[in-house]
Amino acid sequence: MQVKSSLVQLIEAVNIYDDSQLQIFEAEKVIPFAIKRVYTISKCRPNLARGHHAHKVTDQVLFCIQGSVEMYLDDGKLNETYSLDDEKLGIYLPRKMWHEMRNISNDAIMIVFASQYYDETDYIRDYKAFKKYIKSENKNDNDE
Ligand code: TYD
C-alpha cells in the first residue's frame, strides 16, 4: 500500500547560466550541514536498484545531475516515492530515513553530499532491523 506523506524535502542548488550551466553547492548554505564526504554514482547497469538502507547519524543530500532516478523514502511510518529528474533539485536524505534508488536511467549521474565519513557501522541494511531501531529511538525520545 502506498502511503502518501511529506517526507520529501527538496533542496535547490545555486545555478548560474551563461554559455553553460554552473551549479554551486555550498556547505551549510545550500547543503544544510558541514560536508565531510562527496561521492558520485554513475554508469549504473540496467535494472539496478541501490540504497536499501538507512543511516544512524549521517545526513545526505543527493542530486541527479544527469538522467533520472526514482527515490523511495520510508521513515518507518510513512513512505513516499519521488522522481528526481531535474538537476537543479536535490533530495534531502536525513539520518534514520530508509532510502532506495529505483528505475535509475542508464545515463544517470548522481552526486551525494554526506555529513559523515564512510562508516559501515552507521548503516542499517536490514529493513526489519530499521523498524526496530526506529521504534527504540522513538521510545527513548518519549522517555526523555
Ligand atoms: P552503498 O552505500 O551500500 O551504496 P548504495 O547506497 O549506492 O547502494 O555502498 C556500496 C559499497 O561502496 C559498499 O561496499 C560500501 C562502499 N562505500 C565506501 O567504501 N565508501 C563510501 O563513501 C560509500 C558511499 C560506499
Provide a compact summary of the structure.
The protein is built from one helix and twelve strands, in the order ββββββββββββα.
Largest sheet entry: 5 strands, antiparallel
Topology pattern, helix = H, strand = E: EEEEEEEEEEEEH
Helix content: 10-25%
The count of DSSP E runs of length 2 or more, i.e. the number of strands, is: 12
Bound molecules: thymidine-5'-diphosphate
- What overall geometry do the principal axes of the alpha carbons give? globular
Q: What percent of residues are in strands?
A: 35-45%
What is the CA–CA distance across the termini?
33 Å
Mean pLDDT: 94
Give start-end ranges of low-pLDDT stretches. none
Strand order in the largest sheet: 1-9-6-11-4
Going by helix content, strand content and strand pairing, the class is: mainly beta
